[in-house]
Amino acid sequence: MSEYVESVDIDVEPERLFEFLSDVANLPSYMPRLSQAEPVGDGAVEVVATPRMPDGSTVEVRGTAWTRVDNPGRTFSWGSVGGRHGYKGSFDIDRRGEDATLTVRITSGRADPDGVRAGLRDVLASIKDMTEKR
């Protein structure tokens, strides 16, 4: 299992950023390989994703994920249920003056560290773009 960490400063109020990120309905808008996320109760979410395989192809994967919202700490965590890569992650939002620093942490057994890091940077750039324009 490897852990990957990336951060970005975002010119948006931390509480507003947390509200956006922790709303499960918004997941497909900023996670490029996630096409559907439907809450089913007790933090469980039915998801449909199209991950990129090492050969560059994509496959459709359906599964269940768990989510956890820690509002006082402004942390939104998630992970796969029964996935073979032990995937889990979190968004931590820290105050930076009037704005926010967003840190994403991913733990995964996936064998493509460069791909994971590139994916994290893409997600952070997407979130920054979406939330600074709102």
From TrEMBL:
Signal peptide positions on this chain = none
**Pfam family name, one:** Polyketide_cyc2
Q: Which domain of life is it from?
A: Bacteria
Give the InterPro entries listed for this entry. Answer: Polyketide_cyclase/dehydratase, START-like_dom_sf
Name of the molecule in the record: Polyketide cyclase / dehydrase and lipid transport
The species is: Mobilicoccus caccae
**Phylogenetic lineage:** Bacteria, Bacillati, Actinomycetota, Actinomycetes, Micrococcales
